[in-house]
Amino acid sequence: ASYLVVGAVVLALLAGLAAFSTWLVRGDVDRNVARYEITFSGSVSGLPEGGQVLYRGIPVGRVAEIRIDPDNVENVLVEVDIDRATPIKSDTVATLEFQGLTGIAYVQLRGGTQASARLDPNARTPPRIGSRPSALERVFESTPELLARTDIDEVHVATPDHGHAIMVIEAGRHGKDVDCQTQESRTPREG
Rounded distance, CA 66 to CA 93, Å? Predict the structure, then answer.
């Protein structure tokens, strides 16, 4: 009798697992999304496929595919699936941002005025969203000009793990004194 009860419980658990899996898959399939394309001229290091897409800080989609632009090898094409209800306008701009100190990147969409035309989410080819460098990218791009200045003798670097090495090396190459501060812990529990 006890074997019968154990068998019934195991079968019930398997049926529950199958129902839960079907619910998860159906939820993903039923999503009403549109595919858009973003061209980045810089590195997309830290951006994973499946990564978040935010519109003014609100989660609206996921990164579907990342690849080199076959028409221009200096660009990276990022295809994103965004909820169709999201008003992506012709003047919406994408930047690559980082989540805190983790180094994990996400796509941030900004802009889009009320008067601008909405990109057609039903287009045969994915509509293209413009991009611009993030604040961190602009800092890295301006580093050589700053280090070439003769009135700067010392550089203080306090960036996440993924950003300090390049700045420290470049400062050393330019003969600057360097003070580098990196994080000792990743979470409050680590102290």
Answer: 18
- Rounded Cα gap, residues 82 and 173, in angstroms: 44
Please determine, for residue 40, whether its predicted confidence score (pLDDT) is greater than 50. yes
Q: Which of 61-65, 79-83, 100-104 has the lowest mean pLDDT?
A: 100-104
The whole-angstrom separation of Cα 9 and Cα 166 is: 58
Cα separations in angstroms, 136 against 28, 82, 165: 33, 25, 14
The region of weakest confidence among 1-5, 57-61, 172-176, 179-183 is: 179-183
CB 51 within 8 A of CB 103: no
Dihedral sign (CA 183, 187, 190, 191): positive
